[in-house]
Amino acid sequence: MLAPLFDNIPLMIMLVGMLVGIASTLVGTFLVLRGSSMLSDAIGHSIVFGIVIVWLLTHQQSGPVQIVGAALTGLLTVFLTELLVNTQRVKKDAAIGLVFPVLFSIGVLLLNLYARDVHIDTHTVLLGEIGFVWLDTVSIGGYPVPQSLLSMGAMTLLNGLFVLVFFKELKLATFDAPLAKALGFAPGVLFYALLMLTSGTAVAAFDAVGAVLFVAFVIVPPSAAYLLTNRLWLMFVYGMVISVLSSVSGYYLAVAWDVSIGGMMAVMTGVFLLLAFLAGPHYGLLAQLARRRGQRRLNENRTLAVHLYNHEGEPEQAVENVTRALREHLHWDAAKARRVVQRSREQGHVLQEGELLHLTPAGRAIAREILEPAKF
């Protein structure tokens, strides 16, 4: 039963991509909401330093020790960043830009000095190659299972458990850190635990998609989800769905166009971000245009109602409360005047008798609400 599953190379590649995306979304959502998403970029690069140090100490190229080493490097990156920020001489973004290039450069130098003959190189760490994950397998029950599938599965499970167990605490610490601290939730500890998991996810993912592409999965799906919903749990759902869709569509497009699979998966996350930016129900460009258009139409209807109300019952009503007068007094062209009158009639705010326009009770109430707000 399982043999055809593990022999299906495209499925294995897509599964690894999905797990990288899901694991990254679980930690990246909180980083995006905290405005600390670029820390994932810093961690993604600085883990090179941790990987090299662990290899120099243990001569292990992968496994739990490497993940712990990378996690500690991530914490070191954040600690040094906070140290610089606390001097009040540099801002946080500048501090991040100062710290991670130093750690990354030291890692690259150590690689070139002491690990030239070892299968650890900057290209592998930064870019990876998800198309070859099926070559590095572990035998489980007689079936060859990709190592990346196991490591990313473990990290996805660990990240999921962390978010599930500490969901309320993480939510409160993200949106109201002072209150979380007052309630004894230790938001600082939670944040550092989150960064440790981010570092662990990065080192587990670098064999498959590389640190650079890992950053795309951490930041882009949660950002796209943020454009789609205001509810935290839905952000996780949308982010994971986008990660899955990006992995599947990225694989097939990469095969069709003969380009990098991991790179195309990252590109597809950008495509979904663009779609969310355009069509998101709350913050999408089209939704904003529709709201502005609706507000403009509402203002036009109100302006017409006020104009008619001001001249209602007055001697000049027969001259002022006609469509052609709107062009002179409201500076509307003929087409706009006809359009607004027609819309107000359809909405039951205006009645027309010949050329004369009359307010209905509903239209009169709108005008009074604007002109006499204290009475309403």
UniProtKB/TrEMBL annotation:
Chain segments annotated as transmembrane: 12-32, 39-58, 64-85, 94-115, 149-167, 179-197, 203-220, 232-254, 260-286
UniProt keyword annotations, A-Z: Cell membrane, Membrane, Transmembrane, Transmembrane helix, Transport
Listed PANTHER family: ABC-TRANSPORTER METAL-BINDING PROTEIN, METAL TRANSPORT SYSTEM MEMBRANE PROTEIN CT_070-RELATED
Coiled coil regions, renumbered to chain: none
Family the entry assigns: Belongs to the ABC-3 integral membrane protein family.
Superkingdom of this protein's organism: Bacteria
Name assigned to this protein: Manganese/zinc/iron transport system permease protein
Cellular component aspect of the GO annotation: ATP-binding cassette (ABC) transporter complex
Topology versus the membrane: Multi-pass membrane protein
One GO-annotated biological process of the protein: response to zinc ion
Subcellular location: Cell membrane
